[in-house]
Design brief:
Elements (H helix, E strand, L loop, with lengths): L6 E4 L1 H18 L5 E7 L3 H8 L6 E9 L12 E4 L9 E9 L3 H11 L5 E9 L12 E5 L5 E2 L15 E3 L5
Parallel strand pairs: 2-3, 2-5, 5-6, 6-7
Antiparallel strand pairs: 1-9, 3-4, 8-9
Helix pairs in contact: 1-2
The chain binds guanosine-5'-monophosphate.
Length: 176
């Protein structure tokens, strides 16, 4: 199989610097408190793994998985939670960690779902945000990068299950 090298949009050094800054901010904002970090599988697992190691707080890690995209490059319009968290989040400081806020549908669904479980606080951290595609009003509390409307891969983000292992964020060109 051919080894595809996409155009680099955000380098691994730039990613590391932003994640360190976000980790410091979260550490400051929740000083002397415990946080529950919810990693949204699969796309945010690399970001989340790096981010939690920059948060200097007592922390519990949970995972959720949802489906909406399948193997296409556009949203199917509804979100299903395929895997839920295993522990209670009631009265906890919760930070949802997402890979990318595109139309905002996925994160809107997750925020609504978790809000019903009465957390003490509910925040959103996202690696990427495409403002030109947003369809719902979403506040991102901890954002690493705002990007243009390009389909990106790498650093956990896939296309049809591939390219998650790339250490940088690249642009998927037509034809791949
Ligand atoms: P939304 O529900 O905000 O429209 O879409 C969010 C999900 O769509 C993300 O969690 C991600 O899985 C997928 N997605 C949106 N844009 C991109 C992109 O540019 N690249 C990749 N790999 N996935 C994307």
């Amino acid at each position: 199989m051919e080894h595809y090298t996409p155009e680099i949009l955000i380098s691994d050094d730039e990613i590391a610097a932003r994640i360190e800054a976000l980790g410091n901010q979260i550490t400051k904002d929740f000083e002397n408190q415990e946080v529950v970090v919810i990693c949204v599988l699969k796309g945010s697992y690399v970001f989340c793994a790096d981010l939690i190691r920059k948060i200097q707080l007592p922390l519990r890690l949970e995972f959720v998985a949802c489906s909406s995209y399948g193997e296409s490059m556009s949203s199917s319009g509804n979100v299903h939670i395929d895997l839920d968290v295993t522990g209670s989040i009631e009265n906890q400081n919760v930070i949802i960690v997402e890979d990318i806020v595109d139309t905002g549908l996925t994160i809107k669904t997750l925020l609504e779902t978790f809000k019903l479980r009465r957390p003490k606080s509910l925040k959103l951290a996202s690696l990427l945000y495409k403002p030109s595609r947003l369809k719902y009003s979403i506040d991102i509390d901890y954002l690493a990068f705002e990007i243009e409307d390009k389909f990106v891969i790498g650093y956990g983000l896939d296309y049809a299950g591939r390219y998650r292992e790339l250490p940088y964020i690249g642009i998927l060109n037509a034809g791949h």
